[in-house]
Every structure is written in C-alpha cells, then in structure tokens.
Amino acid sequence: MELLEHAGRRVTMPSEPLCCGPTWISTGQLGIAERVLSRTVRHLAGHLQEGGLVVGLEPSCTAVFRSDAGELFPGDRDVRRPAEQTVTLAELLTGHSPGYEPPRGPDRTARAPAQMHCHQHAVLGWDADEELLRRAGVDVEQPASGGCGLAGNFGFERGHLDVSRACAERVLLPRLRSEDAGTVVRADGFSCRTQIHELDSGGHEAVHLAELLASALPDSEVTGSAYGVAPGVRPAPPGRRARALALASAGAAVGGLTAGMVRLVRGMRGMRGMRGMRG
Fold it and tell me: Is Membrane given among the entry's keywords (predicted)?
C-alpha cells in the first residue's frame, strides 16, 4: 500500500475475503469457479461502475479477470468490466499515473534476475514491468525460457514432485545457484516464489515487484537494503504434517488466500500532476 500511496493513490481493500477462482479453474471445477467469481464480481460492481480500477498483484488472479472470466460468462457486462478495468501494478504506475517516477536505490542502478510467471507470458505481458524497472534503475535479466514447474496446484499433487522439480532444474534453479548470495531475484507469482524458496535455489528468496520498489522508499516499512538484499526473511518451509493439513483444507480456505491479491484503487482528487482513475 505504501508504494501506491507514494504514487498519489488512495488504496481501499475489499471489506471481506474475495477469490477470483484460479484454484477451481485449474482443477476443472468450473461450476464452483463460476459461483466464486460471481460473488467477487458482485462485490466489485459498484467500484467498477464508478470507473475505478482493480490492481492485481498475483498474476494468476489478474489473468482470471483479464481472460478466464469472460470465457466463463460470455456476454455478461458485469464480468467484462473487470477484464477492462483490471491492471497490473506495473501497468498502473506506467500507464495510469502521469508524472510518476519510481523510487531508485542508493546505487542508482541495480541488477535483478527475473522469473516471469506463466500468466505473464501468456496473458498479461511484460512490457510495462520492463519499462517501470528501467525507470527505477533496475537492470532486469529475463531468460527466454524456463518455468518454475509448480504450475499452481500441479506440483503439490501426489506423483508430480519429480516432474515439478525437473522443470525448475531445467533453467531456473541452476541460474539462481550461479548468482551471488546478495542478488535480488524478482518474481511476482506465488508459485514461482514458492519453488525458489523450497527447492535448491542457492539460498535465494524472490521478491515481488511491489517489495522491490517499496524497499527504496524513504522510511519504508519493507526491511532489507534497497535493491541489494531481498526485503525481509521468508518463514521456514512447513513440515509434512502441516502441508497435509493445508492441502486438506485448501478448498475451505481459498477465498481468504486471495483476499490480499486484489487492490481496489481510486485516484486522489486534487493531487498535483496526477490524473484521477475515472475516465
């Protein structure tokens, strides 16, 4: 939130847990996905009808609004609005925030290998991210191929671990093991960050674009040095019993998991040099 407020935006969060349904879509449970998504669309309807934007921080959730939702509800105007009015963080800061300049680290330039999420490749694109990071003085290195291998729930399912690990070992993990310990790794996807955390990445922890930029803000609450060391410390991986319990309760908890992945953003009226979010 502090990053968006620094950009002159007033941020509001949903008043209750919401889910965009990627867990249900990826497992073929389209009936549940439709019910879950319908509830979310109803909750956002007023904000969207007033011209507000939705900022998606998790690529898989953002891609549902931009792509899957329209296929599940063809011809539904209320569902088309999220597709038209959902933006990524980078798109908001580069395309909807005139005059905004991202914070820069003390060294003015930095290097950050990046792991693109599959939905960034397939649906969302990367141009806005690349432009924003260039303006922030970050030299981003993006490999031409090499997924993380987790693929949502795939890597957690029985019998898939070896395939999931092999995918990550194809490009991602060897690349990270070759990096210096203090190198920041950029990954917006929860799946990508999970693989980097749990598999042999040479001790690296990936950070979200929001964390990376917020770490350079004056008096930032994000810990760690700007663009140098990954902000904060991730918790230790859960034990086998904890994972089993988490998987067993995933269906009941999925609504809460995505509550923090959607930000409702409205422009602040009266901000000099800033344009309101309403068209």
Answer: yes
